[in-house]
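Quick entry between incubations.
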Amino acid sequence: MSDKKIIELNNIKRNFQVGTETVHALKGISFSIEEGQFVTIMGKSGSGKSTLLNILGCLDSPSSGNYLLDGSSVQSMNKDQRARIRNQKIGFVFQNYNLLANTTAIENVELPLMYNPEVSTSEREKRAIEALQRVELGDRLYHKSNQMSGGQMQRVAIARALVNNPAVILADEATGNLDTRTSYSILKLLQQLHKEGRTIIFVTHNNEITSFSQRNIVLRDGKILSDTYNPTILSAAEALEKLPKEEDEEETL
Amino acid sequence: MNLSNLFRIAWRALNKNKMRAFLTMLGIIIGVASVIAMLAIGEGSKRSIEKQISEMGANMIMIMPYDNKAVGGVRMSASNVQTLKISDYQDICNKAKYVGAASPYVSSGGQFIYQNKNYPASISGVSPSYLEIRQLKIKSGYMFTDSDVKRYNKVCVIGKTIADNLFTNGENPVGKIIRFNSIPFQIIGVLESKGYNSMGMDQDEIVLAPYTAVQKRILAIDYLHGVFCSAETEDLAPKAVESITQILAKNHNISNPDDYDFEIRSQEELSSMLTSTSDMMTILLACVAGISLLVGGIGIMNIMYVSVTERIKEIGLRMSVGARERDILVQFLIESVLISITGGLIGVIFGFLSSYGVKLFAGWPVFIEAWSVVLSFVVCSAIGIFFGWYPARKAAGLDPIEALRYE
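Done. Structure below.
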């Protein structure tokens, strides 16, 4: 594993003005994430993890502090530059998938590339197919989002996050809407991607997820409560095996 | 940003909501179609009036004497004013610019008699070129000639109404002798029928004779009741009028226009009077149609606005995968312009169809002018941009974080 730092946060603060009151959502967060790490960020609601995720995802700018993403300083960027960096360096996976309704898998996956003028039509299609094959949906390229199960939709969302070959994948409660079995299969996929060298940040309030990640950062009240490396990483693949067999339909979830 | 990609994005978005896109389009379709059809009907009626006028001789100029002296406080009727002389006519023929043909004009009312039939009408004394000026044609026989004029020959050419009333047995009038009051005239030709003009006057109630014969043998006068001219082209009529005015003013030694003892009228006045009515109708119809186009545009705005609200989450997603504000703005603008342009195209087709439908079923004259098609098309595209702008602006101004969280 290389030591190249993908993400460096230095004393990040984020304040919100609510009426006359100032809410300090983040009160000085500093950590760095190296290339190829699988990190979970834990925290109860109100701990600031959503704010942190928005900043990590370049959707929001910190009130103060430095944020370096893959070597470029994000807090000095304007909206358009942040849009560009989201387009090229970040892959989002959301809790509720956020697929375009009534749209085929391949069109959903192509979406980030549509906003990248450097990618030609043929390359866009090629990369979308590759990404979908990577998440084992090579046979469902033209299925529409409303014809798929939750697990399949989340796989499409992961393919969409992969397609621009991002520096970091940001998953926001990516298994929150899924049943245990499907959650494990998604985690299994994320662990595989991690093994291939992807940097993954998984934001969750679910304790269980942390046992599958390499490193766990816990937030409370806008500060880091703990930042620990996981000595015994569980394999999601094994966890999936151990689950009692239901019917035989689960494999394609 | 790659415009073709944004175009594709907008196209996909519209495709997902075909029915709604179509219903939105319907407003534009009806608007554009009605603008085209209304303008076509207006233009058609204008053209048919203009055609009638040109059948009367579109470039005709009438010169009438005008009594402005009011000797002893009594104004004389034009036919009693003796200021217009044959020399004026000759000068107009020889010196006036832009004048094609000219004919003197004298007339007298009376009774035409053939055997036991009689019919009241007036006889017009003219020269042969009158036919050309009034766009009349000989149906049978021939027109009298300049030598008939020189010899004061009592010959005449009659219109259909006269022929029908005097020759009820279907005899050929040509060669017959009729009497005007007591003076015999030989019919040498019959004019082609022109029917009624746009003011309801029977254009076939006409008898033409050499003006010399009418002057000397009927009226015993040496002045003219008027001069009819034709300008070389319709457009040159005002210039011809100017030229004639100068000649007559010089001949009559009048420098102040208020003192002119003649009056010149061109068909232009008549045509502008008649077309102004149809112009007003056209404007009225186009306004109503324009309003429907506007309502169609507001329909687009309404739907785009709903569409933005409905797709807030999608907009958030697009922003999170790298769409800039401008990309979102352009996407929604393209969507509304696509709706309006497609609607416009279909509207043009329906405009053509309904125009011809009106022609076919109602029998109204229609004429589709290229500019009306271009105009309504440009207007509806502009409407797409104009009414798409506000919703698109709203979409682009969304905060991606809020939008993603929106339920």
